[in-house]
Amino acid sequence: MSRKRFIVAMSGASGAPYGLCLLEELLRQGHEVHLVVTEAAWRVLKEEHQWEVQQREQLFFERYGNLSGPLVYHPIKDIGASIASGSFMCDAMVVIPCSMATLAKIAQGISSNLLERSADVMLKERRPLILVPRETPLHSIHLENMLKLSRYGASIVPAMPAFYHQPTEIEEMVRFIAGKVLDLLGVKHDLYRRWEGRQ
Predict the structure, then answer these.
(1) Staple partner for 98: which of 1, 12, 94, 131, CB 3.0–4.6 Å?
(2) Total count of domains within the chain
(3) 192 within a domain of the structure (yes/no)
(4) Using one digit for the tens of pLDDT, what is the confidence trace for 3-45?
């Protein structure tokens, strides 16, 4: 397996487990991951995983730094980071979870932080950008922004777990969404049982 380079960004929507599951699987398989976490996402990590946000990136390295792939953490305000430039070669970027505020700014080409700038770079360089929105219900502005980004070339993967594989634990539903993202990235995995039809 050849090592690939991905940007994984977490914004302030509920659904931190999706991002952590994807991050862990990519690193476990030996891929290089550049990580960006917004201030709102840190709040979500505190609420959904009881992380102490004062420690910041140290928490990621404690949990995922011993896996096969290299992990690079970029502060959200570091607009001069390597991933902010089109000259930074990258296989794809995933925003997981993606808040509606982040999605709206990307759709409008606003680059007020490193996540938004990196997503803008992916669009302008015609590189794969995957957004995993987690919100319900959706109003027309949300839908219009998603349609706009889809037309610009982004892939929209709403956090909508399936039930045909009869999940019995939350983790199985989390793995399903992370697995669907990995499918789009072209990364083989066994995070969920695929539908093979009924006899």
Answers:
(1) 131
(2) 1
(3) no
(4) 999 999 999 999 999 999 999 999 999 999 999 999 999 999 9
pLDDT in tens, 36-72: 999 999 999 999 998 876 667 888 999 898 999 999 9
The order of strands in the sheet holding 155-156 is 71-74, 32-37, 5-10, 92-98, 129-133, 155-156
40 among the known binding-site residues? no
In a domain, 47, yes or no: yes
Indicate whether 190 belongs to any domain: no
Q: How would you label 124-133 residue by residue, b for 16+ Cβ within 10 Å and e otherwise?
A: eeebbbbbbb
Is the pTM here over 0.70, yes or no? yes
Residue 152 counted as an annotated binding residue: no
Residue 176 is part of which domain span? 5-185
Q: Is 134 flagged in the annotation as binding?
A: yes
Name the region of 169 (left: φ>0; alpha: ψ -120 to 50; beta: rest).
Answer: beta
180 has binding-site annotation: yes
Instruction: Check whether 102 is labelled as a binding-site residue.
Output: yes
Is 42 inside any structural domain? yes
